[in-house]
Specification:
about 70 residues; mainly alpha; 3 helices; elongated
């Protein structure tokens, strides 16, 4: 089942930038926003993965697997 849509309020400046980016990529504005959201989520995951391990995580990894 396809996603339903909704309207979001953004500034005219942001809309112009989205339109420009969408045009450059030969995409719709909606597809460009979806891609931007996915990239932001991936960035968050990357930041989480690159963070130092906690003491608990290090202990777990160093534990004897038995």
């Amino acid at each position: 089942m396809p996603d339903t849509t909704t309207t979001i309020r953004i500034s005219r400046t942001t809309h112009r930038e989205l339109r420009r980016l969408a045009d450059q990529r030969h995409q719709t504005v909606a597809d460009t926003v979806s891609r931007a959201v996915r990239l932001l989520l991936q960035d968050d995951i990357g930041r989480d993965l690159s963070a130092p391990l906690t003491d608990e995580e290090t202990s777990w990894l160093d534990a004897d697997a038995g």
